[in-house]
Design a protein that fits this description.
Blueprint (H helix, E strand, L loop, with lengths): L2 E2 L2 E3 L2 E3 L6 E4 L6 E5 L6 H17 L3 H17 L1 H12 L3 H25 L5 E8 L6 E9 L4 E4 L7 H13 L3 E4 L5 H13 L8 E3 L16 E5 L2 H8 L2 H4 L4 E5 L4 E5 L8 H15 L9 E7 L3 H12 L20 H15 L3 E5 L19 E4 L7 H5 L6 E7 L2 H9 L4 E7 L3 H12 L2 E7 L18 E4 L6 E4 L9 E9 H6 L2
Parallel strand pairs: 1-5, 8-9, 8-11, 9-10, 11-12, 13-14, 13-18, 14-17, 16-17, 18-19
Antiparallel strand pairs: 2-3, 4-5, 6-7, 7-22, 15-16, 20-21
Length: about 525
């Protein structure tokens, strides 16, 4: 029988008592490992984290907790090759796509370790200047932020088992809040291994980092008022989480990242042979194919001036033709598989729905897979669709196909283009391409209200910009509306979610002691 992965809860490794769920290689179809959380004493595990790990973390300074993050990063770096192998087997990713997840996780840990060093020997944060509450100024109000006295529950998505863990856990642990992560079952192996390795290395106090693999049943029931929960996944599941009594009655703080119909927009005034046009086509093709389009930040809608529609279609298609698809272990393959058969079927169904409202401009499935059996492998080629009337085509603005699929659409003028982009009803990111700084700046501000991040690319930063879909720890990640309304990362801003703000009203000598 295949290996049953251990959960880590209550300060110790624990095996589920059931048969578990089998994880399968999405390219080869071979059995990998099993995960199971049946029979775990969740209440005891949450209590252990709150009552033992929480006080231990809060007794440390931000600098000391930052040092622990740096130590965790070293543990992960030393085992990087093992994580790459797990990602290839469990997620079907090529090496470059694995790097986005694994190396991105290590980079994020390092970023928050450095933030801890800058915060220094403090155990709380001062929020703004003191304000006088009396005529003589002797009585003042000072706002502070202190770590929440609970646990952070993370319910994560399947597409980033490494980065998805640490982009949440790093700011939580730096804040002094213990973490319990429930990874998506389909790709839980990498998350479990990273947590296991860090725990075995003794980096954090016992119970500061826990992982529950398998069913999420009962996890939300353990939440208490000072806990927090952060979820990444579908809007349907997000609605269930928001309606849970822990949220509606207990006022547990919740952060949601849900569906997102992200866009790329080429501004007017660019010729087909311009640098901006080339950067635009390159980024669209890249974002369609990185991790087989299974990124919450991937480009789904593509907008160009009417006169450039055909040129853009051909330029993007020309790049997609170079994307070889198949077994990620073959060095000639540039795009691996979808994560499993269920995801493959979901993407195919979504694509069929979109094709009813758009025509196919490039069909990547017309090419043979490399070193993979189409009957077994969950691989599909990139598909570029085209919708000539985006004003009267609600489906292209409402349907997110979580795979290598994007829809190209024309616009009349910049006002029309911005209106179309806003029809995403709230997205994680939009990218703007062009060479007119004034027009780009104005458009960026106009779109900021419906996007968590506006990524502007001009020829001057063509070789140095961080990428439309790359979530950098220095910038906010999240978005309004249908994107969930949440915020993560953004440098030290991420710590806000794991702190409680309070006003301390006292005489000046007392106020001076809390700075």
């Amino acid at each position: 029988m295949t290996e049953l992965l251990l959960n880590h809860l209550g300060g110790r490794a624990q095996a589920g008592s059931g048969q578990g769920t089998l994880l399968v290689d999405p390219v080869l179809g071979t059995e990998l490992v099993r995960v199971d959380s049946t029979g775990l004493d969740l209440a005891a595990g949450f209590a252990y984290a709150r009552d033992n790990a929480g006080p231990a973390l809060r007794a440390m300074t931000y600098a000391q907790r930052g040092e622990m993050l740096a130590a965790a990063g070293k543990v992960l770096q030393a085992r990087r090759d093992e994580y790459y192998a797990i990602s290839t087997a469990n997620s079907g990713t090529v090496r470059n796509d694995t790097a986005v997840d694994v190396d991105g996780a290590i980079y994020t840990l390092g970023s928050y370790a450095r933030i801890g060093a800058t915060l220094g020997a403090r155990t709380h944060l001062v929020d703004g200047d003191a304000a006088s509450l009396s005529k003589d100024g002797a009585f003042q109000s000072q706002h502070v932020q202190v770590p929440t006295r609970g646990v952070a529950l993370f319910i994560n998505a399947f597409n980033f088992p490494a980065w998805g863990l640490w982009e949440k856990a790093a700011p939580a642990l730096l804040s002094g809040v213990p973490v319990i992560v429930k990874p998506a079952t389909a790709t839980a192996w990498l998350t479990q291994r990273m947590v296991h390795d860090v725990i075995e290395a003794g980096v954090f106090p016992p119970g500061a980092l826990s992982v529950v693999c398998g069913s999420s049943a009962g996890l939300m029931d353990q939440l208490k008022p000072f806990d927090v929960v952060s979820f990444t996944g579908s809007a349907e599941t997000a609605a269930v989480i928001r309606s849970h009594p822990a949220i509606t009655r207990g006022s547990v703080r919740v952060n949601i990242e849900a569906d997102s119909i992200n866009s790329a927009l080429l501004l007017p005034g660019e010729a087909p042979d311009s640098a901006s046009f080339d950067l635009f086509a390159k980024e669209v093709a890249r974002e369609m194919t990185v991790k087989s389009g299974q990124k919450c930040t991937a480009i789904r809608r593509v907008f160009v001036p009417e006169s450039l529609f055909d040129a853009a279609a051909e330029s993007i298609a020309a790049r997609l033709r170079k994307t070889t698809v198949g077994n990620p272990r073959n060095d000639s393959v540039r795009m691996g598989s979808l994560v499993n058969r269920a995801q493959f079927d979901t993407v195919q169904s979504g694509l069929a729905a979109l094709k009813a409202h758009a025509r196919t401009l490039y069909d990547g499935d017309s090419h043979e897979l490399i070193d993979a059996d189409k009957v077994i492998a969950c691989c599909m080629g990139p598909t570029l669709l085209g919708a000539s009337d985006p004003d009267n085509n609600a489906s292209v603005h409402d349907t997110e196909v979580f795979g290598p699929v994007a829809t190209l659409m024309p616009y009349c003028n910049i006002s029309h283009a911005l209106q179309l982009v806003h029809r995403g009803q709230g997205s994680l990111v939009v990218s703007l391409f062009g060479s007119d700084d004034a027009a780009l700046g104005a458009s960026a501000l106009e779109l900021a209200g419906s996007h968590g991040r506006v990524h502007v690319v001009t020829p001057e930063v063509g070789s140095t910009h961080s990428g439309h879909g790359n979530v950098m720890p220095q910038s906010l990640h999240g978005g309004p509306g249908r994107a969930g309304g949440g915020e993560e990362l953004g440098g030290a801003r991420a710590l806000n979610f794991y702190h409680r703000r309070a006003a301390i009203q006292a005489a000046v000598p007392v106020i001076s002691r809390i700075h």
